[in-house]
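## retry 2 of 3
previous attempt timed out at serialization; input unchanged, resubmitting
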Amino acid sequence: MQPGRRIAFDYGDVRIGVAITDSSGILATPLEFLTNSAEQLRTDLINVYETYLPIYTAVGYPLHLSGSESAKSASVTKFAELISEISSAPIYLIDERMTTVSASRTLRDAGLNAKSAKGEIDSMSAVAILDSALNQERIQGKPMNRFKS
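## retry succeeded, writing output
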């Protein structure tokens, strides 16, 4: 695998979960979530990209269990377009079905409940998205479903 950090986002109407890998691209770690505020989001994203300089971005893409696009898919596409204005690194849309369930289970196993850990769930969901992208990269050389802006 190519060295360099990878970043992932779990887009939500209120909060956006964020996860980053180490510089070797092996370990995904949650970061503090971003508040989805029209006034602040662009600035926060610029700061994240300038701080971590990721080689690619994975964005959780909401699909129905059947695999068809959900109502939220359009919002995530707009978010990916915003990222493409900030960074020239590739953006991959990663199937996020079941990531919130997985994140909730991980936090519950750590002794936290979903109500008291809403922000943590968002960032742990971003970790699950990033882990999925890393697995695809290990198997195929890159994640699937590159976003085309």
